[in-house]
Amino acid sequence: WYQRRVHGVIEPGGGPGTRDYRGDAVGPLGNFHLSEGKRDKVVRVEATVRKQDGDVGFLEMVRDALRGVPGVGGDRQVGLGGVVRVERGRVRSHIMPYFKDSVMRDGSKECGEWLQFFEAGPWLTCVSTILSGDPSGGAMNLRLEHTHFFSTDPARPREAGHYHNDVTPETVRYVAYFAPAAAVHRVGDGFRRMYLDDTLCPCTCQSTFDRVRAQLRSQVRMYLDDTLCPCTCQSTFDRVRAQFRGQRPYLITPLCDTFGAVITGIDLNRVALDKTLGDRITADAHKYRTLVFKGQGAMHWTRQVAFTEMLGKPFQEVSSINRKKHASTPDSRVFRISNDPKVGLTGVGREGWHIDGTVTDVPHKFTLLQCHSACEGGDTLICPLKEVADRLPGRERFDDAYFISGHDASIVHPIVCKHPVRGDATLVFGLGALSSSRYARGAGRERMSEEETAALVAALQSTINTPGLADGHRWEAGDVVLMDNRAVCQFASRSTQSQSAQTGLRLLQRTTVLGTDVP
Known about the structure:
- It is a single chain.
- The protein is an alpha+beta fold and 519 residues long.
- It contains 11 helices and 26 strands.
- The chain has helices at residues 58-67, 109-114, 190-193, 206-219, 234-244, 275-288, 301-311, 385-391, 396-399, 450-464, 500-503; strands at residues 6-10, 16-20, 43-48, 79-88, 91-95, 116-120, 124-131, 145-151, 160-166, 173-180, 251-254, 261-264, 290-293, 335-338, 366-373, 380-384, 401-404, 412-414, 416-418, 425-427, 440-441, 446-447, 471-473, 480-484, 488-492, 507-513.
- The strands form 6 sheets. The chain has an 8-stranded antiparallel beta sheet. Strands 11-12-13-24-15-26-14 form a 7-stranded mixed beta sheet, covered by helices on one side. Strands 18-17-21-22 form a 4-stranded antiparallel beta sheet.
- Mean pLDDT is 85; it is low at 194-206 and 215-240.
């Protein structure tokens, strides 16, 4: 089978168009129908020649039919998801242009002029989700019908958008295939959060939401109700939005319950790199341990160095004793990583699980990786160290053990120590070629035998490989990943070194921030 993802765009000349979509991010709203992909019975619906007047759409008529089924109502609702073909006729649709830098009020003339409406069809393939009603009585703030389409007509290959209704009722023909849903889940209630971050209000119960909203209305009087704030100037909006976000000029979405977050709503190439931003990102990097900034383009190395300097003093990458300077390196603070020896250094990160800076007296504070080009399957594996430390078998064996660098035997670090900012348990180590074959133990740092060292390394490796503990970052061009180097370890997957002619070029640009706390 063949899969292609497209999104509708407004062309420079003003008409509709499509682009291939290679990302995995979702905008302000997404509706998904998930299945196991197995063959089963479906509901087939055909409809031709609409007789009802007005701008009612086919999917709204399906909702009306579902609401009329005996027993449907209250907390007993019906959900459908599937594919709808528009085989004849034309439909009304819209495409959202890129968001504006100024404030737009919902329902305003400006907002109406910004949203672009077009006619499209026939031979449209629509993907749709439908709910007869909200089983929570409105508490979940559900979108009850959502349908997008793309054209399969060779004569109209660039038609795509959000479906509203048909505009040729006398000729239209729909053929739909729906699968009933077993349950409905709400993931991330943007309406209820009202630009609030988890750090401000982790609770999503209605009473807490009402209380927080009332408090914000009394203090801020902005962006909550048209009657509360007549001011629409950009500076006020930016100030209040930052307050809603916990003084963040960006949105932050946790990746999972343990570590990691995706950052959106900020352009690192244009934003002012000041102390306020540096302090905020530093705090979030320590809290979430790994931050992923999406869609940052090909950041120039001077900008990446400036961003790094905002977080601390950059490490002189070319001074590392375990690697040579590549000919393409533009600056001593920049390190280029690739699967093509002509472009950057190869084999980097493949030695074994490690934190960065184990060849120095003070391990690095942060690691910053910026992806210029990604190869297929070239993931970087990342694992949270607190969770590893908590799961180590025979933890007492590690508490007085010392890691010794495989490149410089004078570099000795306690394996288990306390994170300098978070205060929880963390680890300092580098496996494979980064590691000595004999660690040390006790206050006198007496060298262990190779067998005892190998047993510790095996226990550490096994714990890191606990299913579900580590996560892999699948690189896309434009990704910027910031890791709290003292809170996570990393390992480059095997495919990072695949032949560029077969899987594509891999090019990462790395900078690191010098550590300030001796383990």
